[in-house]
Amino acid sequence: MTTTALLTDQYELTMVSAALRAGTANRSCVFEAFARRLPDGRRYGVVAGTGRVLDAVEKFRFGDAELAALDGIVDSDTIGWLADYRFRGEIDGYREGELYFPGSPILTVRGGFAEAVILETVVLSILNHDSAIASAAARMVNAAAGRPIIEMGSRRTHEQAAVAASRAAYLAGVNATSNLEAARTYGVPSAGTAAHSFTLLFAQPDGSDERAAFAAQVEALGTETTLLVDTYDITTGVKNAIEVAGTELGAVRIDSGDLGVLARQVRQQLDDLGAHKTQIVVSGDLDEYAIASLRAEPVDLYGVGTSVVTGSGSPTAGMVYKLVEVDGVPVAKRSSRKESHGGEKRAVRAARSTGTIVEEILVRASNSQAPVSGTAGLDVTEMQIPLVRDGERVPGLPTLEESRRYLARGLVTLPWEGLGLSHGDPAIPTRYLNEPESR
Amino acid sequence: MTTTALLTDQYELTMVSAALRAGTANRSCVFEAFARRLPDGRRYGVVAGTGRVLDAVEKFRFGDAELAALDGIVDSDTIGWLADYRFRGEIDGYREGELYFPGSPILTVRGGFAEAVILETVVLSILNHDSAIASAAARMVNAAAGRPIIEMGSRRTHEQAAVAASRAAYLAGVNATSNLEAARTYGVPSAGTAAHSFTLLFAQPDGSDERAAFAAQVEALGTETTLLVDTYDITTGVKNAIEVAGTELGAVRIDSGDLGVLARQVRQQLDDLGAHKTQIVVSGDLDEYAIASLRAEPVDLYGVGTSVVTGSGSPTAGMVYKLVEVDGVPVAKRSSRKESHGGEKRAVRAARSTGTIVEEILVRASNSQAPVSGTAGLDVTEMQIPLVRDGERVPGLPTLEESRRYLARGLVTLPWEGLGLSHGDPAIPTRYLNEPESR
Questions:
Q1: From the list A17, A197, A337, which residue is nearest B256 (CB)?
Q2: Minimal Cβ distance to B159: which of A125, A217, A219
Q3: How many contacts does A have with B, using Cβ atoms within 8 A?
Q4: N- to C-terminal Cα separation, chain A
Q5: What one-character-per-residue DSSP string does A378-413 give?
Q6: Does residue A370 surpass a pLDDT of 80?
Q7: Chain A residue with minimal CA distance to B231?
Q8: CB contact under 8 A, A181 and B6
Q9: Which chain B residues are closer than 8 Å to A113 by Cβ?
Q10: Of B20, B122, B178, Cβ closest to residue A9
Q11: Domains of chain B: residue spans and CATH
């Protein structure tokens, strides 16, 4: 078991050390992870990474090697405490695949101060990365309007981040990934075409030989394969592709140029050649806007890379992990710019009978069973589910496939303007109810 | 040994499969990794990740578990080939910490087609991520003009990307990291202060108790510690900090508000209290521009987070890995928008006798010892060094510390406008010499 314990900021362990010495390490605390705002004019965010957070919490253990690395950073009492550490508290949270808005308490961690504070970095790393990817990918899936998308961005991000990005993009509705580790670890369907290098490989001193490359690919992978037709001249490439593979060829891919114009030309050419079923795959710096702009064109499948794995301009979800309650007393930072709302919060979402959501309401959690005022005539849904009890993962949590379907249904509940690509306010407002005064 | 073999796009393995069947898998190939352009108006890029690339190449082996995962994706002949795989070719490249410009051949991989093409994804993932971080961090280090910077962005990026980001930022001249795994794995100096949660932890039902929190921290960590003074009221926080810790307190940290104004106020207050040596640490959404804007203020240390780990607007370096030569024949994609320069290239950089660099020149590599035309009166430096021979890492490659010093010296060689923060052209032009015609 690879430990996650050092994927942690040093100050968390020095705070543990100071709290142990001061006798406050076991004060009963509530931390909430939330985003103060949505990035970049987005209308909604998509929660992703919860399953990976729970994996990381289970693996958050300090072995001898980790403890040795902390020598000189914390004192021996702290080393002893860390040696025995495992999380024994409670975690509630939004489902993976749930929509979120500013303030939504995506994860609530209850436990002693020390045991909960040291999870801060790894919890946020995972939620911030995975939610940024899923939030961007969901917009691309919407823009594609039912056409499938392959995520092929591994090469544009950290090699392990790529695996998590594939998972998050799949959660958001992308159909497949190029990343083989994501296929192995998370069961994401994998897919692929071919690179320009494969066509170039067949070049001879006296010239290129695209047909030899296509023939080799069809021989190995069958006529259902996708041939990359833009290494040299696209029109010739399409002609070569169909001559070599026949009219049953699976697809051709175009990776450069004006994709809309080219898609129309290639469709016409394929149809003229009798290859009516041969599909057109486009790729090359596609983001949600480029995908939307191709909606009227004869494109069958999008390959997206850089934009999805970098969150399409918003590579982090900007979530924070804040202490909101100590021994039942609401607490909050009170300095100017980063005001927080103290006290543990219960989150509910109100929807019309049509299913369209209208408001998120954060209620002081001590009112956990009370009806929520101002929601007459609306359906009210509790947003959090139990994730960890007594340090153990709650059985029967949603699988990745279930979360993927959950998000697909959730997106339909957004007010219509919430699915637009233009910048604007969050799709629904967040209201705070029965807010306590914080210390 | 954790394998890196599945950190790979599926199409690389299906191309291997097709090339094996076509008898072209062992054609002698040269791949080059380079960036077509610098991101976002940047004047230079910083090469980072080379050391991690070499680690990843060593660990690129297919064990039984990996081969089992590929069942159904490639045929049994390919499985057999992968089972025996290890890279046996040659790699040359720019040093880590080297400046790069559009077209610079940062890494050149020579080997059979199959053995070299399957490294594409993991090589690019590492170079694109690490170079994006180092390139952004170098600008921040320059903007800080000698004042130290702590990288504390782990929570804003994927949990493993955070470790690599710490390494890359340190390479670029950042002084320390909050990330404990980066400290353990790469020897990056670690540092930390405290979070608002620590101060809030000491709240009581009848009110806050910032002094108790400060006293606990000083008790555990000594007066050299850094106290976070903006949980409640900053002026009161500074007063409490000095009353509790004395005038020998190491530093106070301000994490919100108008940092310039606050730094001046706090400096005045500290001086009035006699705490002349107590330093001021600022943090909170700092990027290179915010750092530069604080140059005239009494700030002693910057804490940077989101902006550094996300490449300050450019989270990927956009490098590509292109086949440029097959059996000695230059090859290049010839379609419209993404033209490449075929043929293996030797890279040299010309500098005035003052050390200021003036031009990067990419010469057909077959002229590997010839003088470079157009460089009379200039000092000419070869840019690539051997990194791998016969599949083995060349001994004596630069350490992280050496690469860090190398970059610090390299930045001094930029023309003066190259160190500016404003958007513009690359600091020096790139010239192609003796370009062959590609197939």
A1: A337
A2: A125
A3: 362
A4: 41
A5: SEEEE-EEEEEETTEEPTTPPPHHHHHHHHHHHHTT
A6: no
A7: A333
A8: yes
A9: 197, 201
A10: B178
A11: 10-133+316-344+384-428 (3.20.140.10), 143-309 (3.20.20.70)
B277 in reach of chain A (CB within 8 A): no
Minimal CA separation from A375 to chain B, in Å: 32
CB B397 within 8 A of CB B340: no
The pair phi, psi for residue B141, each rounded to 5°, is -60, -45
Q: Is A427 left (phi over 0), alpha (psi -120 to 50) or beta?
A: alpha
Q: How far apart are CA B109 and CA B115, in angstroms?
A: 10
Among the partner residues B129, B156, B216, nearest to A157 by beta-carbon distance: B129
Asked if B230 contacts B255 with a C-beta cutoff of 8 angstroms, the reply is yes
Those residues whose C-beta lies under 8 Å from the C-beta of residue B261, and which sit 6 or more positions away, are none
The CA-based diameter of chain A, rounded to the nearest angstrom, is: 81
B387: contact with A, CB 8 A cutoff: no
Q: How far is CA B384 from CA A176, B346, B387, B410, in A?
A: 38, 8, 9, 15
A231–B334 C-beta distance less than 8 A: yes
Q: Which residues of A touch B14 (CB under 8 A)?
A: 192, 194, 220-221
Reported pTM: 0.97
Q: pLDDT (tens digit, 9 = 90+) per residue, B234-265?
A: 999 999 999 999 999 999 999 999 999 999 99
Across the interface, whether the CB atoms of B257 and A336 are under 8 A apart is answered: yes
CA-nearest of B76, B72, B4, B109 to B319 is: B109
Helices B400-411 and B120-144: angle between axes, nearest 10 degrees? 60
Which residues on chain B are in Cβ contact (under 8 Å) with A14?
192, 194, 220-221
**Which chain A residues contact residue B194 at CB under 8 A?**
11, 14-15, 18
Please tell me the distance from the alpha carbon of residue A270 to that of residue A255, in angstroms, as a whole number: 17
**Structure confidence by residue, pLDDT tens digits, B39-87:** 888 999 999 999 999 999 999 999 999 999 999 999 999 999 999 999 9
Assigned token pair, A345: 């919060």
The answer to whether residue B257 neighbours chain A at the CB level (below 8 Å) is yes
Tell whether B181 lies on the interface with A, counting CB pairs under 8 A: yes
Mean pLDDT of chain B: 95
- Mind giving me the DSSP string for A318-337? -EEEEEEEETTEE----SST
pLDDT of residue A336: 57
Question: What interhelical angle do A234-245 and A210-221 show, nearest 10?
Answer: 40
In degrees rounded to 5, what are phi and psi of residue B28?
Answer: -75, 120
CA–CA gap between residue B302 and residue B287 (Å, rounded): 10
- Residue A349 above 60 pLDDT? yes
Which among B13, B284, B336 has CB closest to A256? B336
Token representation of residue B83: 């089972």
CB contact under 8 A, A7 and B159: yes
Query: In the predicted model, what is the mean pLDDT of residues A195-221?
Result: 95
Cβ contact, residue pair A201, B158, below 8 Å: no
C-alpha span between A386 and A338 (Å, rounded): 28
